[in-house]
Amino acid sequence: MSRIRIAIAGVGNCASSLVQGISYYAQRRNDGSADTTGLMHPVIGGYRCEDIEVVAAFDIDARKVGRPLEEALFAEPNNTKEFCRDIPPTGVTVRMGEILDGVAPHMASYPPRFRFEPASMPAVDVARTLAESGAEILLNYLPVGSETASHYYAEACLKAGVSLINCIPVFIVSDPAWAARFTQAGIPCIGDDVKAQVGATITHRTLARLFADRGVRIDSTYQLNTGGNTDFLNMLSRDRLASKKISKTEAVQSQLDVPLSPDQIHIGPSDFVPFQKDNKVCFLRIEGTGFGGVPMNLELRLSVEDSPNSAAVVADAIRCCKLARDAGLAGPIEPVAAWCMKHPPRQMHDREAKLAFEEFVNDAVSRIRAQGRTGVRA
Prior knowledge:
It is a single chain. By secondary structure, this protein is of the alpha/beta class. The protein folds into 2 domains: 4-196 and 308-370, NAD(P)-binding Rossmann-like Domain (Rossmann fold, 3-Layer(aba) Sandwich), CATH 3.40.50.720; 200-306, Dihydrodipicolinate Reductase, domain 2 (2-Layer Sandwich). The chain has 11 helices and 13 strands. It has a 7-stranded parallel beta sheet with strand order 5-4-1-6-7-8-13, sandwiched between helices. Strands 10-9-11-12 form a 4-stranded mixed beta sheet. The chain has a two-stranded antiparallel ribbon with strand order 2-3. Helix 1 (13-30) packs across helix 9 and helix 6 (200-213) runs parallel beside helix 8 (242-253). The longest helix is centred in the last third of the chain and has 21 residues, at 306-326. The two termini are 13 Å apart.
């Protein structure tokens, strides 16, 4: 199998967890244990997690720009769990990206270990760098609310012929105008706003669907989240949260037969708690009415390491995006987006999305084989 050549925009906690994971599973395969615990799909169309290779990376923080990627992944303000520090040299130097709206002004009032420290150097030409690196896929890991910057990177993908996996809640793949542009350019894309492996949104969706399937009417619900990473600090600025709240709320509402009125559902970040670091704590409540009109309620507390939780899903999205490119597909890959993203072009119930995801993989493999290519397997 060929390698999957990716670029990363935003060398933060999520990038750190993903790249650590690539090395982690490669080491387990090389030592003969072949332990794939933690992967949703150990193999997708013949591609394994360790087949992913980072060939370019962009950031704006002075502690990361100009450094080898394997060092920058552990530089402040990153604070996710280090589960595989031994990353082989990547040969990738982190390049300076455009800042645009990627840094929220309020972060300047916090100590450097918590905030971004913008480098004072000119940005590279991202489209040119992508083309020269041979990248096939760009991961958008920019901070929440970076709409202008996300559009800039999407434009660079279109210029360079590179696929976009949009992991943040800026609506690109789910926007018909952007989707049409990627389709016309013959480039597959996946988005928007990655779900976690077992995170607040997927848990909330599952419980909401459980209530509906068991005949209990949901009357009201909330989801409050706290964390201590740069994402939570960034989101203290409420004007950066509009698309995030829409994405998370629609993800839950889509599981209900009758959506709740806006005043009966509240989903969104609650506060920045520095000592939590990359640990995210979700407080969830669902109030419902069951048999005979008798009320009930459910309360749940979920604690997860935020960035590895999303990396498991991104590892699937990357391999599916590569399959889509191999198969000659273009535009939004809807089944993969429905399974991997909170705000896909088309919402599905999770059990339907899982079946559609697996059907996509089988169909893509069949297309590739029909083209006379070998080396893929479902």
